[in-house]
Write a structure and sequence with these properties.
Largest sheet of chain C: 8 strands, mixed
Number of helices of chain B: 13
Number of strands of chain B: 16
Order of helices and strands of chain B: HEEEEEEHHEEHEHHEHEHEHEHHHEEEH
Distance between the termini of chain B: 26 Å
Structural class of chain C: alpha/beta
Chains: A alpha/beta (448), B alpha/beta (436), C alpha/beta (437)
Strand content of chain C: 15-25%
Oligomer: heterotrimer
Shape of chain C: globular
Number of strands of chain C: 15
Number of helices of chain C: 10
Largest sheet of chain B: 8 strands, mixed
């Protein structure tokens, strides 16, 4: 096979624990949008072994480090998508309202062309989540977009554990309406959470007392870890009432550091969110695709920002993840969020929400060198991501990449076969696999 | 905080108690003089420091160096930009309220052959989505039915009015035909290859038979009408009647088609029916067949631009480049969002097309004068031209740029309040009492 | 490699011989044939003598017993060890179609059976007596077959049968040698996706660990659980899982799971296993490889430059698939054969591809189809080679397997000769699709 096989994909399984690939490069004369500090004109940034090591003027290239003149280009930290279902072989285990034991890390699909397309939009990290069919879904995987590597090398090393919760229409539709089990209502959703938290506490006590008699329970262990603050909760939610409900429950069980995903009505309870230190991760402007998002507003980000809620803008879509910079610009358009704050919503804020802000999300000495060079200010609609680096390794280059960037071909494919999908919420990735589940047609998942 | 929002916030003091209810402010109407702005006429270049006079529903004057008489309400737009109202050539606005709530979905009738269905009939002038989208400068949309093989007629409406009648620019703008799809529609499409092929061929056959039947019906009825004496009047067929305007050449057929092979088949259909006018819409893989579409002189409505490449091995930019490639080949190109709720993102569809190869002016035309031409209403809308309907958008900058603010919208000469439920919610909650 | 299944094969064999030799059954012999061996050597002018299903003598110029019925090779016949199918589904019931109307009350807790967790289940009670594939496979040269039920994550035990045509279902040779496993979710109930299946394996091992500890400690009120008990030998690494997977990422998932919860496995099918060749060799994971190749992409009509690039990649992908076994063998992986759903009618075509495009030699084919598969099934002391004291399982062909025009003349299953009338056309009425794995 020609040069299309990249990096370690030729070596098969890599040993767990081996560090991710790291690269070095010197970027000269860029406009550096650091995010956490000033935007620096005509500035050089040195990347060595995957880390930003110097930011300043007239930096000389150490021996063996490639130099790239970025005069006229804008350097932005890699965009981080706090809500994605990219690169996953399965998304929803829709058979049970609680499936805390399943791990998205088990089913990473390193061959998803969507990862490359995301890189081509300057996005370097995505939070690969379980779908929203279940009240307590599976554990998330924070992925570094090392396109061309195996699944193991896509997993960001030492990223905090996360888990998906989901409130409202999706779990009540799947389980209550679909299977006639609790929950069919938002009342039921609350009780499912409480029952399982209580069960986890009881389990932990019983198992501690008799470890040889009480088997390790994969599900309850995870729930107990949530209660112990070891896992960050990312909760699919829309309505203000359900957001308040979860904060009430979490306060009662002592759970901190959580993020409401989608949260279309978060603006209605921004003071309460701020008071609880809860975060939000929202769409820039999606609404009206179902009833619980009918009373939405594209000013959501502006209101949350005003109240000091740490907010990010996410994609939940392999299409939107291609242009999260454009989605962030909508926060400026709707409600006049500052450009700096808007950019934070796709860089440092999602990093905070994933517990990785000390490592990524800004251009600072010592941080991991995930970044892209843009042809114009990234909030402009004319800005084109030209090259993207992950840990100092260039993973996308619009000038030199081939047209066909698939990592493998399927001999059964037909040249003409195409998949035309609408953008928007019509093909709701959050509910992927649920159709499989209900039609029971197939459980075989495409790996191509 | 920009001026528009500042005004809104002031307003909210008065409106806070009823904010979530209705848009109560009446639009201004009469004689307006828009002075000092950069006017992007689209049809006749750009005028710096220009003047537009609006009288009633119409544009009375476009130019510069004219001092309006005292009966005009003068609106100083120094530093601003005026553009024709944007036209989204493919939406479900007014037909769908909440996508996942079937009882609010009125764009998909039962059956494969529904030429008698009219989108016009089901337009809800009070859809919450209409103000949400028009305040961002989309003044006119095609609202289209979607189901079956022949879905019914799409309607071209302005986004202001109390009834479909008062909104209609062209009540029946095109007959929508969905070209049978030879591939999968997405990850949710579970059909096997055999099922796909079988369904595709069955549908194509059905479409051909129905089309021929309708054509025969039209010819039969025309023959009868030309000289009814001595003939028995044939029974009227409601569905077939719907197709007669098509065969008369009075109503274009808008074929929704995306795949390369399907486009080629559709082009054959076009050449087999020289007396019928055709438009292609959606056209995701139009770039593969650009020269052939251009040669057939079929206008194309591309969109959404922001979509995924249709094949795994395709270059990642193809969807963004599609409109530009078609334009370069000589195709008359308009754009569509294909949306209901976010028709307001139409300028960004054009912005991406412009960023990736479509000349800027052409991208603006693709959301103004080109759709007007395609639907035969360029004598009334689509550019800032004397005598045309005053559908105008005032911005503080580039129409296609995300962060640009829309500061005024005129539809049919009406100076519309920039209010929508989304802005009302903003006003209601931006200064919420934190203790309650 | 080490025997995967420790057992009493030799004892069994001894018993078989002693009981049968009491009766004076006539011997049989093939003379003047070319005998092909797994080490790549051939014995020309060979004579093979067997009696009571067991080879009595092999060699050139050896005496032929007076009571032997002789098939004279006339210097043109070739004798191979009987082919062994390392895992098939011949004669097993299809997975029942489950319609939404069959939905269980609580899909979250469907019970072991509905969830496809049946590692204790034996295959022989469910085998159809009249499955056309038994004869079709025998016509293809197969003499021994491992069969396991179809199903989801743990559908049941693998058992080994003599391919005796219509008597196959009752010709059980080794019962319940190992549980078949896969990442297939049960439709409509938990676990329905690969990710939940992986978690379910973890939980099963947790549960089995505690049950084992309780039983060992003779604790009061310890229940029996046939499902968990069937997993004990796997957990103790006495028995491997026969893990069915094709996709390279699924194989990586199984490798990680085996590290995490601790089990050995035989990889079954493994159409994409070459990607992990080095890792599989290092870990001593054998592969029962499928030869169910995709159709060769037809790129003959492609002329446009963009399409030609695409077509080249298609061909490369196809070629990698056909060379999968070659790559694995080169890396030192023990590769045997599993039909795993391949239609008997497609066997010969794909066997020829292994030679023409898959770069396998005659010796490789003997290893793949006989010797290695036998080793993997733990039957290497009794089958897989034509040697004295072993089962008289043989295929007699007109030409070497590497010659595209070879025809099978006879199959000898445990001494019983079947004359093959013509090139097998496959089993009629048995056009099953591949089982979902």
């Amino acid at each position: 096979m020609r040069s299309i096989i990249l990096f370690t994909l030729t070596f098969g399984l890599t040993v767990s624990g081996i560090s991710q690939p790291k690269g070095s490069v010197l970027i000269k004369n860029a406009t550096v949008i650091t995010i956490t500090g000033e935007t620096l004109e005509n500035t050089d940034v040195l990347v060595q072994s995957g880390l930003f090591t110097r930011i300043g003027k007239n930096i000389a290239a150490p021996r063996g480090v490639d130099v790239l003149d970025a005069t006229g280009k804008f350097m932005l930290p890699g965009i981080i998508d706090a809500h994605s279902h990219l690169a996953l072989a399965s998304v929803n285990e829709a058979s049970s309202p609680v499936t805390a034991e399943v791990r998205m890390a088990d089913v990473v699909n390193a061959y998803d062309i969507g990862v490359y397309r995301a890189l081509a939009g300057g996005t370097t990290i995505s939070h690969a989540m379980h779908g929203s069919a279940n009240v307590i879904g599976g554990q998330g995987a924070t992925l570094k977009h090392h396109y061309g590597e195996t699944a193991e090398n896509l997993l960001m090393r030492n990223a905090p554990r996360t888990i998906k919760f989901a409130l409202g229409e999706n779990p009540t539709r799947v389980h209550g309406q679909g299977n006639s089990v609790v929950p069919r209502t938002r009342m039921g959703v609350e009780q499912v959470i409480r029952e399982h938290f209580d069960a986890a506490k009881d389990y932990k006590r019983r198992r501690a007392a008799a470890p040889n008699r009480v088997a390790k329970n994969e599900r309850l262990e995870v729930l107990a870890d949530i209660l112990d603050g070891k896992i960050l909760v990312h909760c699919h939610s829309y309505r203000a009432d359900e957001i308040l409900m979860l904060m009430r429950v979490f306060n009662e069980y002592g759970i901190k550091n959580y993020t409401f995903q989608h949260a279309n009505e978060a603006f209605k309870v921004a003071p309460e969110l701020a008071k609880n230190g809860a975060h939000t991760s929202i769409f820039a402007d999606w609404w009206a695709y179902k009833f619980e998002v009918y009373y939405s507003t594209s000013f959501n980000a502006a209101i949350l920002n005003k109240y000091g809620v740490i907010n990010s803008i996410n994609s939940d879509s392999e299409e939107l993840i291609r242009h999260l910079n454009h989605e962030a610009a909508k926060a400026v358009k709707y409600g006049g969020v500052s450009q700096q704050d808007a950019l934070k919503m796709i860089t440092i804020n999602p990093a905070i929400q994933l517990g990785i802000a000390s490592r990524v999300g800004s251009i600072e000495v010592g941080k991991e060198a995930d970044f892209a060079l843009w042809s114009a200010h990234p909030l402009s609609i004319y800005a084109i991501a030209e090259r993207t680096w992950v840990d100092g390794v260039k993973r996308f280059d619009m000038f030199t990449d081939r047209t066909d960037m698939r990592l493998r071909a399927n001999p059964n494919d037909k040249y003409e076969s195409s998949s035309i999908t609408e953008s928007g919420r019509h093909a709701d990735a959050c509910m992927k696999d649920v159709l499989d589940f209900f039609t029971m047609e197939t459980m075989e998942h495409s790996h191509e | 905080m920009n001026k528009r929002l500042f005004n809104l916030v002031l307003l909210c003091v008065a409106l806070i108690s009823t904010a979530a209810a209705q848009i109560t402010e009446k639009p201004g109407f009469g004689k307006f003089a828009l002075v000092g702005a950069t006017i992007h006429t689209v049809s006749d270049g750009t005028i710096q420091n220009g003047v537009i006079l609006i009288n009633g529903e119409r544009i009375e004057f476009v130019g510069s160096n004219v001092k309006p008489t005292a009966d005009y309400v003068v609106i100083d737009l120094t530093g601003k930009h005026v553009w024709p109202g944007m036209i989204d050539a493919g939406t479900s606005l007014g037909l769908v309220e909440i996508s996942a709530v079937p009882v609010t979905v009125d764009n998909a009738e039962v059956g494969n052959f529904n030429p008698n269905m009219r989108a016009f009939t089901a337009i809800n002038p009070n859809s919450a989505a209409i103000p949400v989208n028009r305040v961002e400068g989309v003044t006119t949309v095609i609202a289209e039915p979607t189901s079956g093989l022949i879905s019914g007629t799409a309607t071209l409406i302005d986004l202001f009015g109390y009834s479909p009648d008062s909104m209609a620019v062209k009540a029946d703008a095109a007959m929508v035909m969905n070209w049978p799809v030879s591939g999968r529609r997405g990850w949710f499409d579970q059909r096997t290859d055999e099922q796909l092929k079988e369904q595709f061929e069955t549908q194509l056959k059905e479409m051909r038979e129905t089309w021929n039947k309708a054509k025969f019906y039209h010819e039969m009825m025309s023959a009868f009408e030309a000289s009814p004496t001595g003939k028995t009047r044939p029974d009227k067929d409601q569905q077939m009647e719907g197709m007669r305007a098509v065969f008369r050449g009075a109503l274009p057929v808008m074929i929704r088609v995306d795949r390369e092979g399907d486009i080629r088949e559709a082009l054959k259909w076009v050449s087999d029916n020289p007396s019928v006018k055709f438009i292609f819409t959606s056209v995701a893989e139009g770039w593969r067949v650009a020269d052939e579409i251009a040669a057939a002189k079929v206008p194309v409505i591309v969109g959404p631009v922001l979509r995924l490449p249709s094949r795994g091995y395709d270059h990642y930019l193809r969807p963004y480049q599609n409109a530009g490639i078609l334009h370069k080949a000589g195709v008359l190109v308009a754009l569509r969002t294909g949306q209901m709720e976010n028709v307001r993102n139409l300028p960004f569809q054009a912005g991406y097309a412009a960023a990736y190869g479509m000349p800027y002016d052409e991208a603006v035309k693709a959301i103004t004068i080109n759709p007007a031409k395609i639907f035969g209403v360029d004598d009334r809308i689509g550019s800032i031209t004397k005598g045309k309907i005053a559908n105008l958008v005032v911005t503080n900058g580039d129409l296609l740029e995300t962060m640009t603010q829309v500061e005024k919208v005129f539809i049919r000469g009406r100076d519309l309040p920039l209010s929508s439920r989304q802005e009302q919610l903003y006003r209601q909650f931006i200064n919420r009492d934190a203790t309650n | 490699m080490k025997l995967l299944i420790s057992g009493s094969a030799a004892l069994f064999l001894a018993g078989l011989v002693s009981t049968l030799s009491a009766q004076a059954v006539p011997a049989q012999a093939i003379t003047r044939a070319t005998l092909h061996r797994a080490d790549g050597s051939t014995l020309t002018n060979a004579t093979v003598v067997w009696r009571n299903g067991i080879v009595e003598a092999v060699g050139s110029n050896i005496p032929i017993p007076f009571d032997a019925r002789v098939t004279d090779g006339g210097d043109s016949l070739h004798v191979y060890p009987g082919f062994i199918d390392g895992l098939s589904t011949w004669g097993t019931p299809e997975i029942p179609r489950i319609s939404p109307a069959d939905r269980v009350e609580r899909p979250a807790e469907p019970g072991y059976e509905r969830a496809g967790i049946q590692p204790e289940r034996s295959v022989h009670p469910m085998l159809r007596k009249d499955a056309a594939e038994y004869s079709a496979a025998r016509n293809n040269g197969f003499t021994l077959v491992a069969i396991a039920p179809q199903g989801f994550m743990l559908p049941g035990q693998v058992s080994v049968f003599h391919l005796h045509g219509d008597r196959t279902a009752t010709s059980i040779y080794r019962r319940d040698i190992a549980p078949k496993a896969s990442l297939a979710g049960a439709r409509g109930v938990y676990p329905s996706t690969p990710m939940a299946v992986l978690s379910r394996y973890r939980q099963l091992f947790n549960d089995a660990t505690v049950l084992k500890a309780q039983q060992t400690a003779n604790a009061a009120n310890v229940g029996r659980d046939a499902v968990l008990e069937a997993l004990f030998p796997v957990m103790e690494k006495k028995t491997p899982f026969f893990f069915v997977a094709d996709d390279r990422e699924d194989i990586a998932r199984i490798l990680r799971l085996s590290d995490e919860i601790g089990f050995r496995f035989v990889l079954v099918s493994g159409r994409d296993a070459a990607f992990h060749a080095a890792e599989l060799a290092k870990r001593n994971v054998p592969v029962l490889a499928s030869i169910d190749f995709s159709a060769k992409p037809d790129t003959s009509n492609i002329t446009e430059p963009e399409k030609m690039e695409w077509a080249a990649r298609q061909l490369e992908a196809w070629s990698a698939q056909v060379r999968n076994i070659r790559t694995l063998m080169n890396a030192g992986v023990t590769v045997g054969f599993a039909s795993n759903g391949l239609k008997p009618a497609d066997f010969r075509k794909n066997l020829d591809l292994l030679v023409s495009d898959g770069a396998l030699t005659d010796a490789d084919l003997v290893k793949l189809l006989s010797a290695n598969t036998s080793t993997i099934l733990g039957t290497s002391t009794v089958a897989g080679e034509v040697r004295v004291g072993r089962l008289a399982d043989m295929v007699v062909t007109t030409k070497p397997l590497t010659d595209k025009s070879f025809k099978i003349l006879h199959t000898v299953t445990a001494g019983e000769i079947t004359e093959i009338k013509s090139t097998p056309a496959g089993a009629t009425g048995a056009n099953r699709g591949r089982i979902p794995q």
